[in-house]
């Protein structure tokens, strides 16, 4: 570990503690943002009566629906619900790797507070804008640029870790 | 970091070590529970001869199947396999954020052992019940309540982190 | 925590620091490998003009396309793009749990450097081979064995954590 305390073990340097303190808040914020999409899908499904498994129609849908209607409705897809689900999946594919890469970047490459916080803030802003661009939706290339900026922040940190790393 | 040791670096307090020791076991348990779903999908696919890519039909399916049959079978969907896959995706969307939020919650908000372990146990119980409710399936709102309880445990921790946090 | 420094707090032992240093590089590498799949999907979509939401056709597709054509093209699926997306999802389902389980395994079971690094290297090799086997594709059971080996590395670590754990 980069920040050895020199006593045979390793702790965090003051700079790392400072970075992690801000990082923690962004992690909580981004996870919350991502989880809100689950609730958005649920509320859309209930409002539109559009579910994907039988027991959801029985529990939340119109009790008069015939089996045939349920089968037809399950096979169809609501475009906006699929859009929220895609947004959610894109978050999973981008935010989780960001968090894991950021942790090893902060611990093992000894970044300055400024550099680390900059990566974290740019990523968070890009992903919040990505969600807005996906759900409104904004015309392309808004969503693409949001994805690109967030992705490059993570890649920049990952490359730094690999560059200083040993296999 | 909340648990500064006061020597310029930061270590874990005894309480945090105690919490993390229990947390570690639940992380391993929940990941194992989630990964078992991969094997469940694989065994269902082989038993039903229902795959999604050509080389799977060639390697695991009936060798006499015509190209036309393979195309038709790939386009169709087995409802129960899709159900397991949805259960697995729901786990990804909920368990991974829980683990990441719990780490920053334990490290940066100085929770009591009781409060932290309670959050972790409630979440684990809710997610195990969620899997049972999805796969049997149990009538709604069983699965919805399981999702809700697990989700609220994570949100409760995330809000605590944000409340004490700095941007 | 297994590696108590005996001063009321807990730090990392020298062995753990050594393991984490190598682990960090593999985390960055595996995340990078996973994220490259996003760019692969994007480039395939642009090359084939096959998108899933309306604004992508307007921003990146043929501007002369009629609404009817867009609707038809959105409903159809490109088999190779779906294959890359499945590969990406399989990575999410396997690599993220590996990283989280490996962290608690290194911190709480006091593995030897050899044993820990072996788990990490086997997993990384298996997942890189899995991606190659999925995207070329190689005949089965190549992809299945790659999944199996990676999955067993994670399960082996998880069981070790649970075995030594307390609830």
Automatic annotation (TrEMBL), chains A, B, C:
It catalyses: RX + glutathione = an S-substituted glutathione + a halide anion + H(+). InterPro entries: MAPEG-like_dom_sf, Membr-assoc_MAPEG, MGST1-like. The chain crosses the membrane at residues 20-42, 92-110, 144-163. The keyword rRNA-binding does not apply. It is found in: Endoplasmic reticulum membrane; Mitochondrion outer membrane. Pfam families: MAPEG. It comes from the Eukaryota. Keywords: Acetylation, Endoplasmic reticulum, Membrane, Mitochondrion, Mitochondrion outer membrane, Transferase, Transmembrane, Transmembrane helix. It is a multi-pass membrane protein. Its EC number is 2.5.1.18. GO terms for molecular function: glutathione transferase activity. One of its GO terms (cellular component) is endoplasmic reticulum membrane. Gene3D superfamilies: Membrane associated eicosanoid/glutathione metabolism-like domain. Homotrimer; The trimer binds only one molecule of glutathione. Conjugation of reduced glutathione to a wide number of exogenous and endogenous hydrophobic electrophiles. Belongs to the MAPEG family. This is Microsomal glutathione S-transferase 1. It comes from Stichopus japonicus (Sea cucumber).
């Amino acid at each position: 570990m980069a920040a050895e305390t020199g006593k045979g073990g390793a702790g965090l340097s003051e700079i790392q503690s400072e970075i992690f303190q801000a990082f923690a808040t962004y992690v909580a914020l981004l996870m919350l943002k991502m989880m809100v999409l689950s609730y958005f899908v649920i509320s859309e499904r209930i409002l539109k009566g559009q579910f994907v498994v039988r027991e959801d129609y029985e529990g939340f849908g119109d009790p008069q629906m015939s089996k045939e209607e349920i089968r037809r409705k399950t096979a169809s897809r609501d475009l906006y619900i699929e859009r929220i689900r895609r947004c959610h999946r894109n978050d999973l594919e981008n935010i989780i790797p960001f968090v894991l890469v950021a942790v090893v970047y902060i611990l093992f490459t000894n970044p300055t507070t400024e550099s680390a916080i900059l990566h974290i803030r740019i990523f968070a802003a890009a992903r919040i804008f990505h969600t807005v661009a996906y759900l409104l939706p904004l015309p392309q290339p808004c969503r693409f640029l949001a994805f690109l900026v967030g992705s490059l922040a993570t890649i920049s940190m990952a490359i730094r870790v690999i560059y200083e790393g040993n296999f």
